[in-house]
Structures are given as structure tokens and as C-alpha cells.
Amino acid sequence: MGVGGEAAAADAAAMSAPAAEEAGKDGAEGWLVPVRLNKYVVLIWVLCAACVWALMHHYFHNAAISKAEEGLVSMCEERARMLQDQFAVSVNHVHALAILVATFHYEKQPPALDQDTFAEYTARTSFERPLLSGVAYAQRVVHADRESFERQQGWIIKTMKHEPSPVQDEYAPVIYSQETISYIEGLDMMSGEEDRENILRSRASGKAVLTRPFRLMSNHLGVVLTFPVYVHDLRPDAKVEDRVAATAGYLGGAFDVESLVENLLKQLAGNQELVVNVYDVTNNSNPLVMYGSEVPLGNPSPSHTSMLDFGDPYRKHHMICRYRNKPHVPWSAISTPCGVFVIFMLVGYILFAAWSHYDKVKEDCRKMEELKKQAEAADVAKSQFLATVSHEIRTPMNGVLGMLDMLLDTDLKSTQRDYAQTAQVCGKALISLINEVLDRAKIEAGKLDLESVPFDLRSILDDVISLFSSKSRDKGIELAVYVSERVPEILLGDPGRFRQIITNLVGNSVKFTERGHIFVQVHLADHSNLATEAKVEPVANGMNGHKDETTAVATGVSRNTLSGFEAADSRNNWENFKLLLSYEKNEMPYESVSDKVTLVVSVEDTGIGIPLDAQGKVFTPFMQADSSTSRTYGGTGIGLSISKCLVEIMGGQINFVSRPHVGSTFTFTAVLQKCDRSTISDSKPVMLHPLPSNFKGLSALLVDRRPVRSTVTKYHLQRLGITSEVVTTIESALGVLSGRNGHSLASMKLPCMLLIESDSWSSRMDVSLRSRLLEVKQNGHTPVLPKIILLAAAESDKLKANYAVDSVITKPLKASTLAACLFQALGITQTQPSQEKRDSSGSLRGLLLGKNILVVDDNKVNLRVAAGTLKKFGAKVECVDSGKDALALLQIPYKFDLCLMDIQMPEMDGFEATRHIRAMEAKVNEQADAGDNSEVDGATRAAKWHLPVLAMTADVIQATHEECTKCGMDGYVTKPFEEKQLFQAVQKFS
């Protein structure tokens, strides 16, 4: 969205605020409705909890009763089965006795059985019939045989009342009896109505039959068991007539049912809990008790009825079991429902409290919603402000950088080219500072994405050094960079964001350092001992030996650092640095199968340091160490916070070690990817700053008494292909050249240059050094005198005038500056332009060569810059300064291959002009599809017309990109032009 679009959005947000407030009031009234229902909700909740309690209690109670009933059924069925089995045993014994009578009384002639034998046998076998009080045998006698029977027995057949039996069809007098019931001998069993009925049923069925219950002489309830005795065996399916005809008599006995049940229950456990009743239910309306007390059958307590089968098909019996006491309600049926009820009450209380609190915060939510609306409107206003500021600054910077770029394409001296490049780098740094504010907004919105393109890390560090070289020279501080040889030449990542982190850290160091040095190191994480955890350095007697933190550090203290000043992090010492150098010489080779490379970057300075109480907030946005920092040193306080966010996005971490009045060392890690030159595609060109190859094979002798500084100088010489040897004094250098005192040049060629650090040089050495070098030459030790080059942080022209040297190289060192100075000092001709530079722009030239491009911009300088940039790559460019003039030239059929359109122009901006272009194309394409030949010719209808239109804008926010796409533009390029971005935008239409 452009500035106008964002302003409209802000107005719309402001206009919608009253409506939102009114809607919020209506919502607040709606929220109050449930509050009035709170008391009803509470009552319903309590009732629901009570219902749950009742249901759970009922469930647990019924479960306990059901379990008790199951136990009752099991015990009752068990007792009924055992009672039947015991009764069947007694019936079997009576049946066996009947067979005995039939065998020995009727089948033996004469009979082998008499009263004495029967009495003795039954007495001796009574233990097998413990529940029978006595057994007796009654013979069947018909009326015709009564007299002979009575004469034979010697007694008269009597009734139960001991009276002579009246005349009947047949009689059943007892002839044999157990001794215990001998008093019934001679009694007619058929004289009693019920006995007669049982006898008749017994002989007809052939089974044992029972009488109704009655009291025995033992006062127990019992029944009389009657079993028929046949003269011969009958088939099971014999008819009644056959059974009656074969009947010889009847065997009977009194059965003690009460004793049987009592003995049975004593054998089983749990009888104390049960009440057992046995009934004769032949007459359902009047059941007869055989065992137990009279208990109404309709007793409400749990009970179970088990049917009994005693073998009599006529009589029916059953057993009723019930618990002696009503089953108790289990404790779980009370405790569990009560616990659930309490939980319900607690949950209800919590919900009620939460609901009440929710009602209270409703109004706060409504107010927060209003504040959110206002914040969104403020965010739109901030975006508008950022877009305006970005555009207003980028527009003139486009002209500055564009003209510098065009200047660099002309023939310049080496020094002039270096100055122009430095100015260009400074301009790009200013653009990056503008981007910091925009980056902070993107980070907060979570919309910051990283690129993944090939880049040269060492070139980026050279650019950063160039950016701050002037300030470091003005302050007289050492500014140096060192990259380990093990770090790959080309890496895959986001070079812009990596440069931004280094720039922020080095910029802060330059800002807060007045003496000493700033040293940037890059190593592989596997070889570096530079940790990213915070470390507190112990200081005796205060800071750096001073009890007062405000006391300045003595500059006379010499240490093995870049400048000789003490560093904050004791791990950055010469011993550790030598260890890292040994790793580079393959003493500990770096082997990694992964394509990931983790770099450790440290930026060390000897500045004012960070106060201890402020070290916890250095990464907080817009925060500085104290209130005087911004007044003294300037700055916004967002650089470190942005750097921290960028490092974390790169998969690393950042921290620092700082000591007040000693300095600070910031260390961060970054995870990048390896990238070989062979894998670099044209779609992702790597932006390299190729170094000249003219110096390969040369050698130099370096005089420097500080080992760290000499290592940095050797690093830059090595990048140019120059081998070097280090000595600490000029005397040692002369000794090396002359081969005296054990010095030799066996490891290197004769040096063509003598590089001397300024602190090893004095004006008294001018004449003596020259004369001694002449002596060395005359003695034949060196055929050509080496060039004397002084390394100093001061201006080179002044030093060269004061000292008798061939050249002065001004620090900070970087490969391109060093190469330019050596070209002049050694008199080597530089090839311009280099082959590498031509190759780097070849892909873009291939896209634009011979293309007709229309550039539309109301700014004359921007037109010149855009035209010059495009013509440099072989394009044919035509320029207009308004949207209306562009529409006049853009008529179908087009004569242009591409249009670069500025967004903000008077009368008609780029958005409106693009919409007109797309509307015209749509109309012509529609007519072509309809075959309308009246308005368009055949050439016009040959293809669908679509002119690629790229926006030229100084706005870099996301809203501008979205607006460009919405109006029909095919992409955009930001001002100032960058070759890489222009290539990426144009290649889609090639």
C-alpha cells in the first residue's frame, strides 16, 4: 500500500472507532444479561448436584442389594440341592429294604424272613437310615383271605384305633416292624384315609409317596414314606393294572424332615445370616410348613424360592431362603455420592467465581478492544511515517549512489577509485541505517525473512572496514579484521543481514572507543574457544587496578593485543590466537560431513566498556547505558537489539564480555551453508570483489613488534598472493637481508618490499636505513633494494613527505586498498577493468542487451541514474517525466520491451498509469478474441499484449509491494538501484 493508501486506511480506522465503541456498549449490555440469572443458575446447579447424589446412592444401593440377592440365590440353591440328595439317599435305602422283603419273603419257599429277623436286620442297619424313626412292612390281604391270614398270624387285623378292622375289599396289616415301632404290628394301614390314599398311589406308580407333614413322636415335623413291594420285577412301562396285580405289600417309614434340614444347615457356613423354610405346597392356597417358623410368603425382605423334588409326583415342595436381617446400606453408597456432591459444589463455586470474574473483566475487554483499534490505527500511521521517511531519504540517495556508480565506470586513478568506492559504501551504509528502523518493525511483526544467496564474507568485512576507516584514522585507533583460512571463500546465506550485524557491532565500537584498537575475528566454531556465554572478568582493587571506576586506564601497560591495550575478554590473548593459527596449519583439521558452517565472530574494542548495572539491558530496544550516552555519542539504541534478533534468526546466539574503562568484546555465532563456485547458478550470482592477481609470487619482509598486528598484516598480504616474514625490529630486518647473525631467507624469495609499522620507525632512521640498505646491495646480498613502505594510521601524504620512504599505506588495512598502494609503490600496471568484474555483470548484460526500455520518473537525477545504469548493460533507454507522457508512448503495438515506472509522480502516479495500461491491454485482447477487425489489425491480434511494468520505489515496506501487485505491476525495484535486484526482477521476463 502506498502512502495515500495507508492514510486512507488510517482515516477509515479513525472513522470506524465510534461505531466500534457503540457496538462495544451494546455488547456490554448483552454481557450483563447472564449476571441477572446467576442466582437461578446456582439453584439449578445445587439441584442437579442433589439429583446426582440421589442417582449415585440409588445405583450403589441397588448394586449392593443385587450382589446380596445373588449370594442368597447361590446359597439357597445349594441347600435345596443338598436336601434333595440326602432325601434321595434315604429313599434308596427304603427301596433296598423293599427288595430285601420281596426276595426273602416271597421268592423263598418257605419264606426266609420272619418278625425277629426283620427286627434284628432293621435295628442293625438303622445307622444307614438316621432320618427314619422306624420302618415296617404291611402285607396286602384281600377280604377272601382275611380269615386264613388271621389264623396264620394268630391275631386280628385292627384299625389305627386298635379296633377290629371293618370289612373292606383288601387290607394292609403290618406283619414286620422295626423294634422301635413294634406297637403298630397288626394295624391295618388302609384304615386311615390318608394312608389308604398313599398306598393306592404308591402301588399304582411304583414310586415312593409321601403324606402331608405331621408331628412325629419326637415332636418334629415329618412325613410317612410308602414304597410298594412286588412279588416279581415289573417293566418300567408296566400298566397300573399289572402293578396292582403284582403288589404283595407295602414298606413304609416315618421320615424326620426337620432333623434332616437341621443337620444339613449345620454343615454349611453362613447359616447365621439365613432363615430357611421348607413347605409342602401341594395346596397352594394353604402351604404346609415342613421346616422353620411361620413366615408370610409376602415378606418384603429379599428372599429366594427353590423347588424341591422328593420323588413324589403328587406332592410339591419348595424351600424359601431369606436373610435374617435386612442387608445394610454399604458405606460406598454414602461416601462416594457425598464426595461427588462436594466436588460438584467446589466446581460450581469455581465456575461461579470464574463467571463472576469474567463478568468483571468484560468491561476491561471492551476497553482493550477499543485500545486495540487505536493501536492498529497508530500502526497504520507508523507505517505511513516509515514509508514517507524512507521515500524522502532514498530519493536523493538514489541520485548520490547512482552517480557514484556511474563515476566508478569511468577511468579513475587508483586513489580516486578508492575514494569513490568508500563514498559509495558510506551511502549504502546510510541506506542500511534507514533500514534498521524498518527492520525493527518487521521483526516485531514477524515478517522478516532471510535470503539464501552466495556471498564473499571477506569482501563484506572489507566493506565494513572501509565504512569506518575515516573515523578510526581520525581517532588514531587500530581497526583490523582477520578471517581464518579455514572459513570457506563463498558461503550461502543473507549477506545483507550479516553485514548489518557486523556494521552495528563495529559502529558501536568505533563510537565508544577513543584509544587502543577494534579487532574483528572470524573463526570456525569447532576451532574457536571464543564462547558466547557472558563472562565476568575478575578485577583486583577495583576496575583494572583502580578502586574508582572513573579512573583512566594507564596507556603505558603493554599487552599482547592488537594495539597493546588490555582487552576485556582474557580469552582473546596471543596464546589462544596462536592456537587458532596452528589449527589453520592443519594441526587440527576441520572435518565436517554436513554442509552447515558455524562461524564464531568476535568484535573486540578497548573503549569505555559497559557499566555493570547496565549490562543486563544492552539488547533492549531504544535503551542505552545511561542518560548521557545518547547526548555524548549519539545513536538510537536499536542496533544491538536488531543484531540479536538477526543472529537468532540465523540459528546462532550473541553475548558479550565488558569491563568498564577496559573495553567490550561482543561474540556471536551464525549458521551458514558451504557453497562451491561450481554450484553457483546464474539465477543467484555471487557479488564478489575480485582481487588482482599481479602480486602472486612476490615476497615481503614485515617489521612489527606486536604479534597480533603482524598476523593481521600477513593475512591481507596473503590474500594478494604475497608471502611474508615477520621480524620485530629494523635491525633484525637488515640482518635477514644481509644474512647476518644466523638470519636467512631460505623459506622465501628475496623480498621486494620492506613493510615497517610506524611505531618501529623514527626520523633518525631515514639516512641510516637507506645507507645500510645500499651496503647490503653492494655486498651482493640482494641485487635489488626492496621498496620501503610505512604502515601507519595517519594520512599517507604527510608521512611520505616527512619520512624518506617509498610509500605509506594508511590503515585500516583491506585487500583492495593495499593492492592500490602496492601498484603505485612497485610500479605495476593494473588491468582495467578486470576480467572478473566483466564476468559478474555478464548475466545482466545478456538480459538487457538491445532491449528497448521506457523509464518514467519525475526526478531528473533519478532519470539520469536509471538511464545510465541500464545503458551500461547495453539497453536502449527512453525517459519521460510523467505518467501521461508514458501513456502517450505506450500504444499497442508496443515498441518497448520493459517499463520502469516511478510510483509517486504529480498529475498521474505510477499506480494509475499502470491501471490505464492494463485496461488498454484488456480491451485490445478482448477485441482480438472476438475477431473484431475494424479496430485492430492482424499484427495487433498476433498475441496477447502484456507489457512488463516494474515499479521504481523508495518504499521498502510490504504494503507498497502489495499495492504494486494489486494495480497490475509485475514487480518492483527499490531505489537506489542494485545490480543484483535488477537482475532478479528482469530475468522473469527475459
UniProtKB/TrEMBL annotation:
Q: Which GO terms describe its cellular component?
A: endomembrane system
- Histidine kinase domain span: 388-674
Gene3D superfamilies from the UniProt entry: 1.10.287.130, 3.40.50.2300, 6.10.250.1190, CHASE domain, Histidine kinase-like ATPase, C-terminal domain
Q: Which GO terms describe its biological process?
A: cytokinin-activated signaling pathway
Q: Where is the CHASE domain?
A: 109-320
Q: How does it sit in the membrane?
A: Multi-pass membrane protein
**What keywords were assigned to this record?**
Cytokinin signaling pathway, Kinase, Membrane, Phosphoprotein, Transferase, Transmembrane, Transmembrane helix, Two-component regulatory system
- According to its UniProt record, the EC number is 2.7.13.3
* Domain Response regulatory, first and last residues per copy: 699-826, 852-990
Q: Which domain of life is it from?
A: Eukaryota
Give GO MF terms, alphabetically. Answer: cytokine binding; phosphorelay sensor kinase activity
Residues with PTM 4-aspartylphosphate:
902
Q: Where in the cell is it found?
A: Endomembrane system
Q: Which reaction does it catalyse?
A: ATP + protein L-histidine = ADP + protein N-phospho-L-histidine
SMART domains, alphabetically?
CHASE (SM01079), HATPase_c (SM00387), HisKA (SM00388), REC (SM00448)
Q: Where are the transmembrane segments?
A: 40-60, 329-355
Quaternary organization: Homodimer.
Role of this protein: Cytokinin receptor related to bacterial two-component regulators. Functions as a histidine kinase and transmits the stress signal to a downstream MAPK cascade.
Instruction: Write down what this protein is called.
Output: histidine kinase
Q: Which organism is it from?
A: Urochloa decumbens
